[in-house]
UniProtKB/TrEMBL annotation:
One of its GO terms (biological process) is neuromuscular synaptic transmission. InterPro entries: Fuseless. The chain crosses the membrane at residues 21-44, 64-87, 99-121, 133-155, 188-210, 230-250, 262-286, 298-316. One of its GO terms (cellular component) is presynaptic membrane. It holds the Pfam family Fuseless. Residues 383-406 are annotated as: Disordered. This is Fuseless. The keyword Zinc does not apply.
């Protein structure tokens, strides 16, 4: 659901042989707890608030028109942000003006997040309006959508917090991966088609898969008691989250030794297991917020979670976790990295701090070496000058006639 680029290649840099295994293991556990307990609920709160506000303000009396407006706002916005990503990357850069970059990038995240929620809301409600909410129909639409994603090797795009975390870091802040990786500097027509396919086709299939699994739990998990159903989802979700994170080293070992279709199937099984946990965590938190946070004033409740959760994520430097952007291919990383969930927060922080200290140490060594070289050069010149002075002492010319000295 959110970008997975953060984890691609990062594990190799963080998990270096020189680092302490115990220290790295502790940071990994803390990152997992942070993603599951802190970041994920905040992301769910933002989505729930934005979705609820759209329900309240976008023609609530006309569900068809409301859905169409959400589709228009959402998919148009996502398409535009995909097309102009390089322009934004050149225009808003901290090396040019740090304040404008910070303000512009957070405004970008806020607008992009609003478009993401509306794209999902529009597609979700459109399917609700034009299909029956019975188990067979829901299962059929979900299975077909999941099969299409599997054929395109795009199942990993259903991932979301707590199994992915998008940090607000400068490199690639505005980058949006497309399905076919078309270079926009060569052929703009193909690039526009690539963006449209990535946003409209892959994005819609992901929404349909999420909707189907969510509704199936609505149907079968204590449908007569919404509160206990939400608590049950929350418990199931976090149990699956714990199991999936615990299996991650084993799955990494297995995928590193598999190739081809077997490796792809193993990676997809791991992704689907994490997806079941993610949907249940989201469903549990979402419904509990509806039931417990100002249930008699849902509009105010949605405003609180919309604004509060976004500000909270900005302060944590991970507001990009609310975004659904980019298309990523299953098992495209080498060896077992395809099943490593990108939840690097504290690990990245300590890595940056180590790099800063290492850079400072190298600068100090370079300064000391320059000072030593200058001192050495000075001593050498003095010695050379001394030798020249000794060799340049005036010599007496003894004339051939000694009487001339008188």
């Amino acid at each position: 659901m959110v970008e997975l680029r953060t984890g691609v290649g990062m594990t190799a840099r963080l998990d270096s042989p020189s680092s302490s295994r115990l220290h790295y293991a502790i940071l990994t556990i803390l990152d997992t707890i942070f993603s599951a307990i802190v970041a994920a609920p905040a992301v769910v709160g933002y989505w729930r608030g934005t979705w609820g506000l759209s329900d309240a303000y976008l023609y609530p009396g006309d569900p068809v028109l409301s859905s169409l407006i959400s589709v228009g706002i959402g998919f148009t916005g996502l398409f535009i942000f995909s097309v102009i990503q390089n322009i934004l990357n050149d225009l808003l850069h901290p090396d040019k003006h740090r304040l404008s970059y910070y303000v512009g990038s957070r405004l970008y995240t806020a607008v992009f997040g609003f478009c993401c929620v509306n794209a999902w809301r529009g597609a979700w409600q459109a399917l609700d309006l034009y299909t029956e909410l019975i188990p067979s129909t829901v299962f059929a639409t979900t299975a077909v959508s999941l099969l299409a994603l599997a054929i395109m090797r795009a199942i990993r795009n259903v991932s979301a917090p707590p199994f992915s975390l998008g940090l607000d870091s400068c490199p690639g802040y505005f980058e949006v991966q497309t399905m076919f990786r078309v270079n926009n500097t060569r052929d703009w027509s193909l690039y526009l088609l690539d963006c449209a396919f990535s946003v409209c086709v892959v994005g819609t299939l992901v929404v349909f898969v999420w909707r189907g699994v969510w509704i199936l739990f609505d149907i079968y998990l204590l449908p007569e008691d919404r509160e206990h159903s939400a608590l049950g989802s929350l418990a199931i979700g976090y149990i699956i989250v714990i199991i999936t994170f615990s299996l991650q080293p084993l799955m990494r070992y297995v995928c590193a030794r598999l190739e081809g279709l077997a490796r792809l199937i193993a990676a997809d099984i791991c992704l689907l297991l994490s997806f079941l946990g993610t949907v249940n965590v989201w469903r549990g938190i979402w419904n509990l917020l509806d039931l417990w946070l100002l249930p008699n004033n849902l509009v105010l409740s949605c405003w609180i979670t919309h604004v509060g959760c976004f500000v909270f994520l900005v302060l944590l430097n991970c507001s990009n976790s609310i975004l659904v952007r980019g298309v990523y291919i299953d098992a495209e990383e080498e060896e077992g990295k395809c099943v490593i969930f990108p939840c690097h927060y504290l690990r990245l922080f300590f890595k940056i701090e180590r790099e800063k200290k290492e850079a400072a140490r190298r600068r100090n060594l370079l300064t000391e070496s320059k000072d030593f070289a200058s001192c050495t050069d000075g001593t050498g010149k003095d010695a050379e000058n001394g030798a020249l002075l000794q060799n340049n002492t005036p010599t007496s010319i003894i004339p051939g006639n000694p009487e001339s000295l008188v």
